[in-house]
């Protein structure tokens, strides 16, 4: 009886180890996170990885991110991001917006506008 239990435990351990090495085999594969993006006025903007060098961001903000989706999803409604809520943004030069994150302005470009 001990041999059967030991054998069953060994098979279970090997099965679990196999799932850890190949998570897709167990249905546990995670989707990779997408680049940070936001949807504003029907346009999807993607993080360029660049910080704005503009010296003047005074005046009223154009809007605020009010909803979020998970990091592995694309936003589908206006003022929605895949990196969080509460961030203010301004429309910048054509095809870009700037988002205020951690006391710094970051440039996001419209999808298909050199941001791919």
From TrEMBL:
<feature type="region of interest" description="Disordered">
    <location>
        <begin position="46"/>
        <end position="79"/>
    </location>
</feature>
<feature type="compositionally biased region" description="Polar residues">
    <location>
        <begin position="50"/>
        <end position="70"/>
    </location>
</feature>
<protein>
    <recommendedName>
        <fullName>Lipoprotein</fullName>
    </recommendedName>
</protein>
<feature type="signal peptide">
    <location>
        <begin position="1"/>
        <end position="20"/>
    </location>
</feature>
<keyword id="KW-0732">Signal</keyword>
């Amino acid at each position: 009886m001990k041999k059967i239990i030991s054998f069953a435990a060994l098979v279970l351990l090997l099965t679990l180890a196999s799932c850890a090495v190949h998570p897709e085999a167990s249905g546990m594969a995670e989707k990779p996170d997408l680049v940070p993006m936001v949807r504003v006025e029907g346009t999807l903007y993607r993080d360029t990885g660049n910080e704005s060098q503009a010296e003047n961001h005074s005046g009223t903000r154009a809007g605020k991110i009010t909803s979020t989706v998970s990091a592995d999803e694309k936003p589908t409604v206006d003022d929605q991001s895949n990196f969080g809520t509460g961030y203010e943004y301004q429309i910048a030069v054509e095809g870009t917006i700037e988002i205020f994150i951690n006391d710094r302005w970051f440039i996001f470009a419209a999808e298909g506008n050199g941001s791919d």
